């Protein structure tokens, strides 16, 4: 009989303790969204996908979890609905500006520039202290502080001046930008990091490819969406 009690205690210990540790690691019932977003940026989206169903079940209507769901949604239209729901239903969430920026990227990438500009204007108006509010896709850098930090130069110099590139990410942490750049370079894409300083804050933009026309850039944008599940937008250089 003693052996049975010992066995039952062991089963309970192995079941309860991992759950307690998991809950503790989730910072008092708040999931660690930032860590999982960084995992996705490093190409570990499959690992996050395996957690998504559990997160959705345990944290219903959590804007951070919804953001993860949208980022991992391959269908751009469906992802847009989720991003918009975050903006509409959780405007004071720390993830609302992220969702709004994703909407801006998506609409810009599919050529709906007026809608994209509306989202960007809303971002700057409602979240003026967001790092994304410093984004300006139309103006070229005007000061030495905003000159690009080129990580890798193309092997050959094109016969024409490059007019457009694709922005695939923007990060306050340089390490995250470097990891995303390395991910693209490992797949054979030319990439560099463009760092700007606005209002005392650094923002590191990851640019991929060099194009003479917007149509060429948009074709690569579609390819990147399918291959990396990342939204990108055409920017002028």
Molecular structure report:
This protein has two domains: 31-130, Serine Threonine Protein Phosphatase 5, Tetratricopeptide repeat (Alpha Horseshoe); 136-236, Sporulation related repeat (Alpha-Beta Plaits). Helices cover 53% and strands 13% of the residues. The protein is built from nine helices and four strands, in the order αααααααβαββαβ. It has a four-stranded antiparallel beta sheet. α5 (76-89) packs antiparallel against α6. The termini are far apart.
Summarize it.
This protein is an alpha+beta fold and 237 residues long.
Secondary structure elements and their pairing?
Blueprint (H helix, E strand, L loop, with lengths): L1 H24 L7 H9 L3 H14 L4 H9 L4 H14 L6 H14 L3 H14 L37 E8 L2 H13 L4 E8 L2 E11 L2 H15 L4 E4 L1
Antiparallel strand pairs: 1-3, 1-4, 2-3
Helix pairs in contact: 2-3, 3-4, 4-5, 5-6, 6-7
């Amino acid at each position: 009989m003693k052996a049975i009690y010992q066995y039952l205690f062991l089963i309970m210990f192995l079941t309860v303790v991992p759950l307690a540790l998991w809950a503790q690691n989730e910072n008092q019932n708040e999931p660690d969204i930032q860590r999982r977003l960084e995992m996705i940026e490093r190409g570990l989206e499959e690992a996050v996908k395996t957690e998504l169903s559990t997160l959705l079940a345990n944290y219903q209507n959590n804007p951070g979890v919804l953001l993860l769901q949208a980022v991992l949604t391959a269908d751009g239209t469906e992802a847009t609905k989720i991003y918009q729901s975050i903006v509409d239903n959780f405007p004071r969430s720390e993830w609302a500006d992220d969702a709004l920026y994703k909407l801006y990227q998506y609409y810009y990438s599919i050529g709906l520039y007026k809608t994209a500009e509306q989202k960007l204007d809303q971002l700057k108006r409602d979240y003026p202290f967001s790092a994304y509010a410093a984004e300006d896709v139309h103006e070229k850098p005007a000061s030495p502080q905003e000159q690009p930090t080129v990580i890798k130069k193309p092997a050959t110099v094109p016969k024409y001046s490059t007019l457009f590139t694709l922005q695939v990410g923007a990060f306050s942490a340089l390490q995250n930008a470097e990891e995303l750049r390395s991910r693209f370079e490992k797949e054979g894409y030319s990439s560099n990091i463009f760092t700007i300083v606005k209002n005392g804050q650094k923002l590191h933009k990851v640019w991929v490819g060099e194009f003479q026309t917007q149509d060429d850039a948009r074709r690569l944008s579609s390819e990147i969406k399918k291959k990396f599940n990342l939204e990108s937008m055409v920017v002028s250089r």
